[in-house]
Design brief:
The chain is built from 2 helices and no strands. The chain has helices at about 5-30, 50-80. The protein starts with a helix and ends in a 32-residue tail after the last helix. The protein has 2 domains: about 5-80, no CATH class; about 85-110. The chain is mainly alpha-helical.
Length: about 110
């Protein structure tokens, strides 16, 4: 997968993982304590979803961490490769090659 794909994955998983975790903790604490109920937000119908939301949030945060690690490995792997002659530009149109592109974005020719 490309770096931008990994970046998109870990961005979404961090956002939704954090959101699920916070909402799950809030719903759980709402039933365990009386002081959160003073805020006026009621979650009577969602009491059974508190623990699954916390678990889903933790799992998404772990997936985000792994995806971020994979993205960093991808960058390090590409940076370690020594450039081969004329592989940084397209031989057909002369356009610059992206980091891990397989096809030229200008003319569509496959890089060798």
């Amino acid at each position: 997968m490309r770096y931008l794909d990994w970046k998109t994955i870990y961005s979404f998983t961090y956002v939704f993982g954090g959101l699920f975790l916070l909402v799950g903790i809030y719903v759980y604490l709402y039933y365990e304590t009386d002081w959160i109920g003073l805020l006026g937000l009621e979650f009577n119908n969602y009491q059974n979803f508190a623990i699954p939301l916390i678990i889903a949030g933790i799992i998404l945060l772990i997936i985000g961490f792994i995806a971020e690690k994979r993205a960093r490995e991808r960058i390090e792997c590409v940076e370690k490769q020594e450039p081969i002659a004329n592989t940084s530009v397209c031989s057909n149109c002369g356009a610059k090659r992206d980091l891990d592109a397989q096809y030229c974005k200008k003319c569509g020719k496959k890089f060798e």
